[in-house]
Amino acid sequence: MKFKSQHLEDQLQDTPELLQAWVREFCDMSEEWGIEPTITRIADAVEGESGVHLDYRAVDFRDEFKGDRFYSDEEVAYLCNHFNQKYSRRDGKPTLLHHSFQGAPLHFHLQVAKNRSMYRDQDAIDRALES
């Protein structure tokens, strides 16, 4: 895994343990396809954001840079389906989202809920934390 900026490596250490486990899982899956993921944002403020990043509960991974994509549409769908099914939330919010925020490049947004009880499959959460 790479970091867009050095300070992001330090920020990652301050994220919840569950989010760190998911970052490793995302990276492992990406690397199986020969993609070295790049973290572009953790807790840096962006105008119009929801606050999940400021709470250190989300990590963004680059998919698009200068118009070029790193992941195919099939890989994007696979990753989103994997995380959103395996770690589905009771409130209906996605665990992994692939989008463009305010016209910025496409990226993955991986987020953890404030409360672990928000997840439908607690065994999946336990297994993620054990890995």
Write the layout of secondary structure elements.
Blueprint: E1 2-3, H1 6-13, H2 17-32, E2 38-41, E3 58-62, E4 64-65, E5 68-69, H3 73-86, E6 96-99, E7 107-111, H4 122-130
Parallel strand pairs: 1-2
Antiparallel strand pairs: 2-3, 3-7, 4-5, 6-7
Description of the molecule:
By secondary structure, this protein is an alpha+beta fold. The protein has one domain. The chain has four helices and seven strands; from the N terminus they run E-H-H-E-E-E-E-H-E-E-H. It has helices at residues 6-13, 17-32, 73-86, 122-130; strands at residues 2-3, 38-41, 58-62, 64-65, 68-69, 96-99, 107-111. Strands 1-2-3-7-6 form a five-stranded mixed beta sheet. Strands 4-5 form a two-stranded antiparallel sheet. It is globular. The model has no long low-confidence stretch (mean pLDDT 93).
Short description:
The protein is built from four helices and seven strands; from the N terminus they run βααββββαββα. By secondary structure, the chain is α+β, with helices and mostly antiparallel strands.
